[in-house]
Design brief:
The structure holds two protein chains of two kinds. Chain A is mainly α. Chain A has helices at residues 2-12, 14-24, 28-45, 47-55, 61-87, 98-101, 105-115, 121-128, 132-149, 153-163. Chain A has two domains: 1-92, no CATH class; 97-164, Orthogonal Bundle (Arc Repressor Mutant, subunit A). In chain A, helix 2 packs across helix 3, helix 2 (14-24) packs parallel to helix 5 (61-87) and helix 3 packs across helix 5 (61-87). The longest helix of chain A has 27 residues, at 61-87. The radius of gyration of chain A is 19 Å and the shape is globular. Classes of the chains: A mainly alpha, B mainly alpha.
């Protein structure tokens, strides 16, 4: 029964995992492969955690679920970091979001996890394998760079009001 | 001595607490206040920075601009959607992986039992090996000699 529960949990994570994988490697096939590889890696490396979880009571399950989720994200990040160098030349950033996809790899991941993933700083630290000041610096840099690259809607609307 | 004191005063005036002075036009925290947007409100750093931002006009306006810009840029952070076909592929792959890894209670119990049995088995082999070692034979010989001597003595 617990196996099915865990299987369902991982399967239900597919939108989040795909979204994160696609942010890091903007290609449909690569992102899908990345998700599958991440699950395999977690199952091979962390088989002991899964074994233990199978034997734990139901009330302790939630904490393990969160840990597994973080491990999957971390695994996606680690694998994609290795692959991006080989794939860099063949990838083209998706239309409309070029400003975001032009950000540095780590900064992009941190900003996505914070804003879209709605994760707290502790979780981001674990996923990226970096310290709190490093994560904060990444987030600030990413926000500043993205802000500089996209047109200011607020300023444009002010100018339009002034022109009228 | 006086020079050293002056140097220390000058140096300390540039140290961290001094930059928390309000309305400082040369406020070096104008960049650091950006982290306020990502820090959790219960953290000590957040409380310190928030206090500073509330008191310093330069930082306050810098932070407001930054906050506004972040709100604007939020729409430029994409959230790619997974399509149904990819979802089905992923579900099947996960199912296959679970089958391959045999992650169910009975299998894990069997695995644990095997592991523990192997440990006992290994301990057993090493015990018998030690019983037939050279030092043990010496001990047997010494024991036998002692037994014979003691038996003669008491008889």
């Amino acid at each position: 029964m617990k196996t099915i529960e865990l299987e369902k949990f991982i399967q239900n994570l597919s939108p989040d995992l795909y979204s994160f994988a696609y942010i890091l490697i903007p290609d449909d096939l690569q992102a899908t492969q990345l998700m599958i590889d991440a699950v395999s890696v977690v199952m091979i490396q962390k088989i002991s955690i899964l074994d233990k979880w199978m034997m734990t009571s139901v009330d302790k399950s939630q904490a393990t679920f969160e840990e597994i989720k973080r491990l999957l994200f971390r695994s996606i990040f680690e694998i994609s970091k290795k692959r991006i160098n080989q794939l860099k030349l063949s990838l083209t950033p998706p239309e409309g979001d070029t400003a975001f996809f032009q950000l540095e790899f780590d900064a992009k991941a941190a900003l996505y996890l914070k804003v879209r993933g709605e994760l707290d700083l502790n979780a981001i630290e674990i996923i990226l394998g970096q310290s709190r000041p490093e994560v904060l610096a990444l987030l600030s840099t990413a926000r500043i760079k993205l802000g500089a690259r996209v047109p200011s809607i607020y300023k444009q609307s002010l100018e339009n009001v002034n022109e009228n | 001595m006086r020079t050293k004191e002056l140097f220390l005063n000058k140096h300390l005036s540039r140290s961290l607490p001094s930059v928390f002075k309000s309305n400082d036009k040369q406020c070096i925290h104008a960049k650091n206040v950006y982290t306020l947007i990502d820090l959790p409100p219960e953290e000590e750093n957040y409380i310190k920075l928030k206090k500073h931002v509330d008191e310093c006009q330069v930082c306050s306006s810098a932070f407001k601009d930054f906050e506004l810009k972040c709100l604007e840029t939020k729409i430029y952070i994409p959230r790619p959607q997974i399509d149904t076909e990819t979802k089905v592929i992923f579900h099947n792959e996960v199912h296959d992986l679970f089958k391959t890894f045999e992650l169910n209670k009975n299998v894990i119990l069997k695995k644990n039992f095997k592991r523990k049995f192997q440990m006992i088995d290994l301990a057993g082999i090493s015990f018998f090996q030690s019983l037939t070692s050279k030092s043990m034979f010496k001990a047997y010989a010494f024991g036998l000699a002692l037994f014979v001597i003691l038996k003669k003595y008491f008889n």
